Amino acid sequence: MSRRLVALYRSQLGKKVVVAVTGLIMVGFLVVHLAGNLKVFLPDPEPGVADIDVYAEALREIGVPFLPHGAVVWATRLALLAAVILHVVCVLQLSAQSRAARRGGYAERRYQRATWAARLMMVSGLTLLVYIVFHLAHLTVGVVEPDRFVHGALYYNLYEAFTRWPFVLIYTVGMAAVAFHVYHGAWSVFQTLGLDSPERNRLFRGVAIGLAILFLVGFLSIPFAFVSGVLGPPPSPPEEHAGILQAGFATPADNAPSEVQR
Ligand code: HEM
Question: Domain containing 75 — which CATH number?
Answer without folding.
Answer: 1.20.1300
